[in-house]
């Protein structure tokens, strides 16, 4: 069974792509990040809520503030990456809904009036968008190194002091360096992950 | 700024792909789903935990049980799709970790010993995998119709009575039918979603 997506694209995005643990010094430009964003922004979210926010950690000072909240090897790894992105949920994403989802102009004040409901939906949809963003990094010919080993409460205090954004993932981005990849780990077989009823 | 991914693949996966609301009768085979799975299983998760489970709703009886828990238009939409998948988190994903992440053979009994920690990490990573799966459906030349408008507690009781799986997304899958697409909604601009520090 062959896919509609060509084999080179399959390799680029999934089959040969791997999480990178080291990077070269080659910079990742804002233009590259914009090209990634302008592709993956089209990935679907519920009511087009588009709750993901991306904070590019560019200055040395910001990088040092970020790695204070890293666990274990994630600190040195992050210091060595040409670009690091903090992915967060905009807990006030509903403010944009009248523009983003004009078909239902009142959901900002109905479905999403409550902060708790926004946090649940916003986190789920920002996480879907994080999946698209990782695919987009690879689409740009770059490697991603996504990390959850951070004290995200600390990251939020450090970068999002107004309490309106909640970080959930940090991604190193760049060209893979020396010994960038661990051996590919096994995946679950189709029959282990997929069942029919 | 151009991406490494060719333009046809960009269109197939993101630029021209849209959430489908109607479908043709053309069946979606297990072989197609396996081809999708065998591509997107390589998408990264923390410690390769691979917590996503996919339940293909194939029988008429199962389809009717599912739509009882659908909200609004999601019921009729789901009845009209050639294939519907329930996406869930395996709350016992840690049982597979000694095989999936042999580099750290003890994390099954350390990091992931507590059910609450598994639920948080498992949900986040299964949601990332849901993003890859939506991209994979499009890679197969099919359209996805992801829906969160279900009573997932009811879906869990109906399909996962043992409490070991927690559903979070339902996706209709097939070839788009007549009037399948709403007009593309606007997306946030780069400067609205991405900031530099």
From TrEMBL, chains A, B:
PANTHER family documented for this protein: MALONIC SEMIALDEHYDE REDUCTASE RUTE-RELATED
Name this protein carries in UniProt: Malonic semialdehyde reductase
Alphabetic keyword roster: Flavoprotein, FMN, NADP, Oxidoreductase
EC number: 1.1.1.298
Top-level taxon in the UniProt lineage: Bacteria
Domain Nitroreductase: 22-175
InterPro entries linked: Nitroreductase, Nitroreductase-like, Nitroreductase_HadB/RutE, RutE-like
Keyword RNA-binding: no
Classification via Pfam families: Nitroreductase
Molecular function terms, GO-annotated: 3-hydroxypropionate dehydrogenase (NADP+) activity
